[in-house]
């Protein structure tokens, strides 16, 4: 009887130690890495005061890894200021080839470059594996009745209609 109990305990110990939380952390860590990089973007800004969005090229989004499933997102815009979003969450979709990025941050904006103000903003994005297709959306509710800045790949900009 003691031998059976000993064998049962030994087998149970083997099964319990083979399942480790580290395996999950490795896969979560890899998700954040999938979106890290510098993105050249086309910017389209829409707000309630204009019927047609204002557009420009030459802006950048830089994403750096902060934690296992978090990143820091920096938006550097020529027209619409600068945005900083820390501890932004990254999650993979069910097929693991598309990633959702979302979080809160601050946009630094103003008409006079010497008098910029901070505005609370929300970032939501989708990035596909390989980072060639992406769509970032920054929403700033307290600017111009609600400002929505959409950032898409600069290479996908239509040649007319700017």
UniProtKB/TrEMBL annotation:
Pfam families per the UniProt record, alphabetical: Calycin_like (PF13944)
Residues annotated as domain Lipocalin-like: 36-150
Keywords linked to the UniProt accession: Signal
InterPro entries given in the database record: Lipocalin-like
Signal peptide (UniProt feature, chain positions): 1-20
Keyword hit for Transferase: no
Residues spanning the membrane: none
Presence of the UniProt keyword Signal in the record: yes
Name assigned to this protein: Lipocalin-like domain-containing protein
Species per Swiss-Prot/TrEMBL record: Prevotella illustrans
């Amino acid at each position: 009887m003691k031998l059976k109990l000993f064998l049962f305990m030994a087998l149970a110990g083997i099964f319990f130690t083979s399942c480790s939380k580290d395996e999950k952390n490795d896969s979560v860590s890899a998700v954040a890495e999938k979106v890290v990089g510098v993105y050249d973007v086309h910017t389209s800004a829409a707000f309630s005061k204009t019927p047609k969005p204002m557009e420009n090229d030459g802006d950048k989004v830089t994403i750096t890894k902060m934690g296992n499933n978090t990143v820091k997102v920096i938006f550097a815009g020529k027209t619409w200021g600068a945005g900083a979003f820390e501890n932004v969450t990254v999650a993979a979709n069910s097929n693991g080839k598309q990633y959702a990025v979302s979080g809160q941050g601050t946009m630094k904006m103003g008409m006079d470059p010497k008098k910029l103000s901070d505005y609370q903003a929300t970032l939501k994005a989708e990035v596909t594996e390989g980072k060639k297709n992406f769509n970032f959306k920054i929403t700033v509710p307290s600017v111009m009745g609600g400002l929505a800045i959409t950032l898409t790949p600069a290479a996908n900009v239509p040649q007319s209609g700017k």
